[in-house]
Structure formats: structure tokens, C-alpha cells
Amino acid sequence: MVEKVYITYNQVHKLCQESAERILNDFKPNLMIAIGGGGYVPARILRSFLKRPGTPNIPIQAIGLSLYESLPTASSSPSSPPETPGTVVTRTQWLDLSSLEMANLIGKRVLIVDEVDDTRTTLEYAVRELQKDVEAAAEKHGRQEEGGRTEFSVFVLHNKEKAKRGRLPQGMVEEGRYAAARTVGDVWICYPWEAT
């Protein structure tokens, strides 16, 4: 049976607080993109800790991504098998490419926030697709040089220590543009916003 680890809102709050200084020093983000549903709460909490006197709040944009998987329901018993990550990422919500929204990403330091790095499939997809969209927006607006300066970083509450199916861009981890508040074993993490 897979070990379940229950995380409280207070623990999420503390993980974000502990990580904020490193994120400010290493990433210096001026925009966050939360991957829904798990990245919404950490991104909002993190924003409070990233706020510095005399500076505006860091804006948060949202994207929705889902892996095809069997999800437990509210009626699932504690002995129900854990959800199984899929292999195909589906966009359930994305930035509006027809508006100035994508142009606002050009030349920015963008922090992508999610709750867990399990297979890395979702993170790989998010970084790859956002980078493609920024490059297309930079070309459309005649800002190709700035588009190349857009830098993506990733923050997760938990990184599961196991082989990953997805890959982040070369150098992202080595250059310190990937941060996990905690690295844990391959356990089933139950966050407080989930009904499990």
C-alpha cells in the first residue's frame, strides 16, 4: 500500500515562507504563473512573502493543465488506490493568445508554480508551451530580442525523488531556476484543498 502524507494549510504556508528569500534572490520574478489546480494556493501565499516595501505585488496569471488519470472521488475509501499520473497533458485553461497578455510575458522573469513535481510531465509541458507562445508573441510584436530574454523558473512545494518522465530545459536545474521547498520519497501527498 502506498504511504499517504497529509499536508496542512499551515505547512504549505511555512514552506512558501521558507522558500521566498531564495526565490527573491535567485529568480527575482516579476510575474508568476500558477498551474491549476494545485499551484493556485501556493502561488497566492508565496506572493505575500515575495512582496517588498515600495514594490508592487507580483501579478499571478493562471493556466490549467491536467494529466489523463483516474482521480479518487469524495466517496473513495482510504484504502482506494492512489491516483495514477497519466502521460498526456491537456490544457484546461490557457493564457489568451489574442490579447496583450502574451506580450506582457516578453522579457520577463516568470516563476511557474505548482504543488508537486511527480513525473515532471506537466512542468515540462508548461515551460515548453509558454516559451513557444512567448517567442510567437515576440515575433508578432517585433520584439524578438526581448523574447529571448524571457526567463522561466519553477517552484514546487514538493519534489518526489524518483525517475522523471518529463524534462525541463537544459540548464534550468543546473542554473538554479528550479526550486522545491522539500524533496520527499514517492509518497501519495494529500493537500488540504483536495477532497481525498
Description:
The protein has 196 residues and is an alpha/beta fold. The protein contains four helices and eight strands. The strands form two sheets. It has a six-stranded mixed sheet, with helices on both faces. A two-stranded parallel sheet has the order 1-8. Strand 2, helix 2 and strand 3 form a beta-alpha-beta unit. The longest helix is centred in the middle third of the chain and has 20 residues. The radius of gyration is 17 Å and the shape is globular. The mean pLDDT is 87.
Which SSEs are present, and which pair or pack?
Layout lengths: L3 E3 L2 H18 L4 E6 L3 H11 L9 E8 L21 E5 L15 E9 L3 H20 L3 H4 L3 E10 L17 E7 L3 E3 L6
Parallel strand pairs: 1-8, 2-3, 2-5, 5-6, 6-7
Antiparallel strand pairs: 3-4
Helix pairs in contact: 1-2
Which terms would index this structure?
196 residues, alpha/beta, six-stranded mixed β-sheet, 8 strands, 27% helix
The level of helicity is: 25-40%
What oligomerization state is this entry in? single chain
Give, in order, the helices and strands: EHEHEEEHHEEE
Low-confidence stretches: none
Query: What value does the average pLDDT take?
Result: 87
The helix tally amounts to 4
Structural class: alpha/beta
- In total, how many beta strands? 8
- End-to-end Cα distance, whole Å, is 16 Å
Q: Main sheet?
A: 6 strands, mixed
Give a short summary of the structure.
It is built from four helices and eight strands.
